[in-house]
């Protein structure tokens, strides 16, 4: 195969599934209803954001075999201020022994609730 990913897209030039985006939007307790325009704009904005993150990560990455790696994404999220809000979602991978060593050096204190 050509390695191209084909998505059914509608006339608006959107390739993310709008039903999935709507489901994610509705998972917020602050959202009661979503009109078509809001759904379309949110879906397109999400698509453009993912494209921007992927391109930035690819250009910032190792460039091995023209492949985008998880580590490229995690490094971009850590290094570029624009993406730092994603550090919990795309953390750098570390070995368990290194994590345990970090915990020894910096014990996590119980937060008072």
In words, what does this structure look like?
Pfam families: CBFD_NFYB_HMF. Keywords: Acetylation, Coiled coil, DNA-binding, Nucleotidyltransferase, Nucleus, Phosphoprotein, Transferase. Its main location: nucleus. One of its GO terms (cellular component) is CHRAC. One of its GO terms (molecular function) is protein heterodimerization activity. Helices cover 48% and strands 0% of the residues. The protein starts with 17 loop residues before the first helix and ends in an 8-residue tail after the last helix. The longest helix has 25 residues. The protein is built from 4 helices and no strands. The N terminus is likely disordered. α2 crosses α3. It has 113 residues and is an all-alpha fold.
Compact summary:
This protein has four helices and no strands.
Whole-angstrom Rg = 19 Å
Q: What number is the mean pLDDT?
A: 84
Structural class: mainly alpha
Q: What coarse outline follows from CA principal-axis ratios?
A: flat
Helices, by number, come to 4
Helix content: 40-55%
Number of distinct beta strands: 0
**Alpha-carbon distance between the termini?**
55 Å
Q: Can you write the helix and strand succession as a string?
A: HHHH
Largest sheet: none
Proportion in β-strands: under 5%
Uncertain segments are: 1-11
Show the helix and strand layout.
Layout: H1 18-26, H2 36-60, H3 70-79, H4 96-105
GO cellular component, one term: CHRAC
Domain Transcription factor CBF/NF-Y/archaeal histone: 15-54
Pfam families: CBFD_NFYB_HMF
